[in-house]
Design brief:
Rossmann fold; Helicase, Ruva Protein, domain 3; 5-stranded parallel sheet; binds adenosine-5'-diphosphate; binds magnesium ion
């Protein structure tokens, strides 16, 4: 789909040049059977990128599996990844394949790979090197043919330097590193995505939105989006649930987007500024309230009242 600079690539909608460049890289690396590491903030679309790599690869007809390495403790993670043999632990009533076996002939996404416990990293390295898995409690290694795509919001190299990630595994997984820019780094994409999500939501919603009020769009564009596209989707779901009428209004948006600190009346920012000024004056005068008040040009009583209101102690 192409409309006036906006493209949708395997579910990723954008008009951003860096995203387009990323798509071209994805198209190329998908064809090669090499491990890819996708780095990007949470909600930026890493899973969609991983799926695109699978869909464009010769493995497209095979399975695509994803596992979140941050979600489970080490022992469970091992069993989920590599499977377990009957009797390996209480409740292991039959041989159970893990994600590696389930992804045989296809692609396995190791999501939040930087969170893998070190002991699991050692086992994963063995799998990558031998192309076999040894299920927990199992005796015989099972050959697996799996293309690994990893994703993380962290700089893996820094994790290696901090001793939390094995360097040898990093080199195995990060043969092709690709970087997914955050939503706040793609000016114009907020408006594009708002339009896409409204078009998607209208047919299945009680509310029908035909337009976005300029103040609402301005607030959406000014927001920092720490949760990226996922957060934007949620903000629109909020607007559908909270607001009425065909125009999405500023008041329909979650408060942190509609009324962020430091804009509009910004009482919090103003209070913080005043508190900082009081502290600075007190510090400059060795904690003397008389002299701090004189320096600020207010009475001693006024200074005391403001200190109390703002929770400032000398
Ligand atoms: N460019 C995009 N266009 C449309 N939807 C997107 C885009 N990027 C992310 N999404 C959607 O946002 C949500 C989060 O994306 P996901 O790939 O799970 O992010 P991550 O894996 O980086 O946390 C998903 O619902 C996904 O479909
Ligand atoms: Mg994710």
């Amino acid at each position: 789909m192409t409309t006036g600079g906006v493209i949708t690539f395997h579910g990723l909608t954008t008009q951003d040049p860096a995203m387009r460049a990323l798509f071209r890289i994805v198209e190329k690396v998908a064809r090669e059977d090499v491990p890819v590491l996708v780095r990007g903030e949470t909600g930026a679309g890493k899973e969609l990128v991983a799926h695109a790599i699978h869909a464009l690869s010769p493995r497209a007809a095979g399975p695509f599996r994803a596992i979140n390495c941050a979600a489970l403790p080490a022992t469970l993670l091992e069993s989920e990844l590599f499977g377990h043999a009957r009797g390996a632990f209480t409740g292991a009533v039959k041989d159970t394949p893990g994600h590696f076996q389930a992804a045989h002939g296809g692609t396995l996404l190791l999501d939040e790979v930087a969170e893998l416990p070190l002991e699991v990293q050692a086992k994963l390295l063995r799998v990558v090197e031998t192309r076999t898995v040894l299920p927990v409690g199992g005796r015989d290694p099972i050959p697996v043919d799996v293309r690994i795509v990893s994703a993380t919001h962290r700089a893996l190299r820094q994790e290696v330097e901090a001793g939390r990630f094995r360097a040898d595994l990093m080199y195995r997984l990060r043969v092709i590193p690709v970087f997914l820019p955050a939503l706040r780094e793609r000016p114009g994409d907020v408006a594009v995505l708002v339009r896409r999500f409204i078009a998607e939501a209208n047919p299945r919603s009680r509310r029908r939105i035909d337009d976005v009020a300029p103040a609402a769009l301005a607030a959406l564009e000014a927001h920092d989006w720490p949760g990226n596209v996922r957060e934007l989707k949620n903000a629109l779901a909020y607007a559908y649930a909270i607001g009425d009428g065909p125009v999405l209004q500023l008041d329909d948006l979650p408060p942190e987007i509609a009324r962020p600190d430091g804009s509009g009346d910004a009482p919090d920012a103003a209070r913080a500024d005043e508190a900082a000024a009081l502290r600075a004056a007190l510090e400059a005068h060795g904690g003397s309230r008389d002299r701090a008040a004189a320096a600020l040009g207010v009475s001693r009583v006024t200074l005391w009242r403001r200190m109390k209101k703002l929770g400032v102690t000398p």
